[in-house]
Amino acid sequence: MTRTPRGAFYLIGAAVVAVAFAIPTLAPADPVTCQTAIARQLQKFKKLDLKAQLKCLRLENLGKLTAPPCPDLPTQLKIQTARDAAVAGIAAGCSLADAASLGFPSDCNLESGATGAEGTCAALPVTTPQQFGQCLACWKAAEASEFMALLVASHAQEVCGGSLDETSSQCSGLDCTTPLPDQRNLGNTGENDCQVGIAKGGVKYLLKREKTLESCALAGGTQASCLADLSVQLLLTRAAAAKDALIKRTCGNRVPTASPPFCCRTGTGQSCTVVATRQDCTNIMGTVMEGKTCNPMTLNCETPGGPNKPITWWETCPESDTCTATLATLDDLITCVDTSADTIVNELLCFQFPRNSHADWPCPTDMP
Predict the structure, then answer these.
(1) Would residue 229 count as lying in a domain?
(2) DSSP string spanning 80-136?
(3) Is residue 48 within 8 Å of residue 78, measured between CB atoms?
(4) pLDDT band for position 366 (cuts 50, 70, 90)
(5) Closest C-alpha among 214, 312, 299, 310 to residue 264
(6) Cα–Cα distances in Å, from 289 out to 196, 261, 280, 284?
(7) What is the mean pLDDT of residues 269-282?
(8) Count of alpha carbons within 13 Å of 76, Cβ hemisphere only?
(9) What's the half-sphere exposure (Cβ side, CA atoms, 13 Å) at 15?
(10) Is the same domain home to 226 and 281?
(11) Is 284 in the same domain as 329?
């Protein structure tokens, strides 16, 4: 069956809501109101976007999604509705003069040399407050999808529309994607519980960190002054501790493994056949046994030794300048979630607070 491209649904929804939320351009607000509207509206959009994506992927992993892949039509509608509401809120609070006074450019080219999803955002026109809101929401969505692909590693390609680099049609590009984690449903397993815990913990941490720093920025703080503020430090420390506890509680001693072992049982008892992939096992009518391996000598499924079980995840942190550090433990995984969330928050704050030529909220050094 031919599927309508997911982008088509977004465009249709945007066209419909553009009429309903038509915003007059003759009633400017003021820069302070505009900056607050940008932060608050994009907060709400990002929160719903991430949580809707995660819910869809969780149901798909469990085989409970009516019409995969994600985002399915109901999820697309939720995200588009939230996006349109955010755009309308920004347009209501901002004139183009306000945006210019805050340091925003007259176009949507917020990152030079952008391609893929970011290139699509960079090419958007900005001739009305409505288009200004659409521009900012576009960049926010690309970064949110990048983070979701990082967290739900077993569905990264699905989240990003196939490609994971800068050519992705849905995500800001991931830096390090080799070896690629197995792309598959994890089923109703402890491994799936772990992955959901990673995703929930990561999403909550990113949302809390960005909201905390945005509040400080709206009060006039800079990146340096906000990170030096003891009250801000306390909130960020608590957010990180809650994330760590959630991931450790749901994952136990699991270690990140791009291709966890499995056994293809093809006979009675533990009889098995050595195959390369889970799909190869399914093709010969075998039963995939997770966490086991097929002993090539005895052709029986056996449980590997060692105390640690795997979690299908990245073995190299996708948000990295060097792509050399190996993730060998759950603590390494948690550190990757930390540094990735921090980098993405820095990018988003760079986009949203361009005042003083980005001196107050500088862009990460690895951005073009």
Answers:
(1) yes
(2) HHHHHHHHHHHHHH--HHHHHHTT--SSS--STT--HHHHHHHT---SSHHHHHHHH
(3) yes
(4) low
(5) 299
(6) 21, 9, 13, 14
(7) 92
(8) 20
(9) 6
(10) no
(11) no
| pLDDT tens digits, 201-234 | 999 999 999 999 999 999 999 999 999 999 999 9
Q: What is the pTM of this model?
A: 0.87
Distance CA 117, CA 7 (A): 11
Distance between the two ends of the chain, CA-based, in angstroms?
A: 40
* Residue 293 belongs to domain spanning: 262-303
What does 155-173 look like in DSSP terms, one character per residue?
Answer: GHHHHTTS--STT-SSSPP
Whether the Cβ atoms of residue 286 and residue 255 lie closer than 8 Å to each other? no
Instruction: Quote the distance between the C-alpha of residue 184 and its chain's center.
Output: 18
Long-range contacts of residues 323-329, Cβ cutoff 8 Å, at least 24 apart:
323/175, 323/176, 323/178, 327/256, 328/255, 328/256, 329/255
- Same domain, residue pair 213 and 271: no
Q: What is the pLDDT of residues 162-174, one digit of tens each?
A: 999 999 999 999 9
Burial class (CB in 10 A: 0-12, 13-18, 19+), 228: exposed
Dihedral over Cα of 184, 190, 191, 193: its sign:
positive
Q: What is the pLDDT of residues 22-58, one digit of tens each?
A: 444 444 458 999 999 999 999 999 999 999 999 999 9
